[in-house]
């Protein structure tokens, strides 16, 4: 779980909030207040996720993209610095596999001659090590494991 607090930023246009990334796990469950700032990438454009009171946001993570053999695609997102007087607050709960030395890759049931595996197998410990090394951002981590 991660809690984020984005206070008022008087020069938000000159400041980075949370840089572009995808989440490493299966799903991320996000609860946020009504202060905007979350954006998702659609094609080459950034689109605002308009906060709705009481709504819960679900983000597909990289592991679900890999395990589903691209049936589900992880969402690249970022958070802009906050130009509003009210602080932006969000809480994210990350759902991920827990066995770090287990091999992961596309589910065998989703791989066939017509739809070959898009990703190679890997261990979760290797995957998480690369994610937290900060060497990769955006959607480059899923691309690293492509066949």
From TrEMBL:
- The question of whether Transmembrane helix is a record keyword is answered with no
Query: Matching PROSITE patterns, A to Z?
Result: FE2OG_OXY
Q: What Gene3D superfamilies does this protein's entry cite?
A: B-lactam Antibiotic, Isopenicillin N Synthase, Chain (2.60.120.330)
Domain of life assignment: Eukaryota
Domain named Fe2OG dioxygenase is located at 1-97
Metal-binding is among the record's keywords? yes
| Keyword set, alphabetical order | Iron, Metal-binding
Q: Name one GO molecular function term.
A: metal ion binding
Q: What is this protein called?
A: Fe2OG dioxygenase domain-containing protein
